[in-house]
Amino acid sequence: MKTFDLSPLYRSFIGFDHLASMMDAAARSDKSSGYPPYNIELIAEDKYRITLAVAGFSEEELTLGIENNTLTVTGEKPQTQETKDEKRFIYKGISERNFERKFQLSDHIKVSGADIDNGLLHIELYREVPEALKPRTIPIGSKTKQIESE
After folding, report:
1. In 11-122, where does DSSP find H-type helix?
2. What is the CATH number of the domain that holds 98?
3. Are strands 70-75 and 109-117 parallel, antiparallel or unpaired?
4. pLDDT, tens only, 100-143
5. For residue 43, what are the CA distances in angstroms to 29, 70, 120, 124, 126?
6. Which residues are CB-neighbours of 40 under 8 A, at least 6 positions away?
7. Spatial distance between the Cα atoms of 116 and 98, rounded to a whole number of angstroms
8. CA distance linking residue 145 with residue 92, whole number of Å
9. What is the C-alpha separation between 92 and 52, in angstroms, rounded?
10. What is the pLDDT of residue 94?
11. 150 neighbors 143 (Cβ within 8 angstroms)
12. Could you tell me the residue range of the domain that residue 8 belongs to?
């Protein structure tokens, strides 16, 4: 496993102490099997789309959830008699196994919707930055005016 020395970043970035822990968590959770395959697209400046290949899964067998800035996509097939199914197939190359795929979302990223089409699950996301966090200019000599307005 590779380790990164982030100490030069801490000299100029204030309040990003959690960055190292997030990178460690991502490195630990990246040991997944790679199933199902997915794409992450930048649609517009503040709009994203995650597309997962979920062939063989219906809407009822898929679950999406968000907790602590983590988007979790779960696919669960109902339990069947595997011995009967295995006897039907001469070769089974399409995997329909259960899965759980997690995506770490940045602050202020919201999920606007999800849709399944032709075996692809599309999850639409957007960034909504609160007004208080948007860049603003502070006029010089406005110390007393600013305190009065707060």
Report:
1. 18-29, 82-88
2. 2.60.40.790
3. unpaired
4. 999 989 888 999 999 999 999 999 999 988 888 778 888 888 66
5. 26, 20, 17, 9, 9
6. 48, 49, 50, 51
7. 17
8. 72
9. 21
10. 76
11. no
12. 1-31
Task: Please give the Cα distance from 126 to 120 (Å, whole number).
Answer: 19
Segment 22-61, tens digit of pLDDT: 666 666 655 556 889 999 999 998 899 999 999 889 999 9
Q: Based on the domain organization, do 110 and 120 belong to the same domain?
A: yes
With beta carbons less than 8 A apart as the criterion, state whether 96 and 59 touch. no
- Which two three-digit tokens encode residue 12? 């100029």
How many folded domains does the chain comprise?
Answer: 2
Beta carbons of 62 and 117 less than 8 angstroms apart: no
Whether the pTM exceeds 0.70: the reply is: no
Secondary structure letter of residue 109 according to DSSP: E
Q: How far apart are CA 105 and CA 71, in angstroms?
A: 7
Region for 131 from its dihedrals, namely left if φ exceeds 0, alpha if ψ lies in -120 to 50, beta otherwise: alpha
Q: How far apart are the first and last CA of the chain?
A: 49
- 42 and 116 share one domain: yes
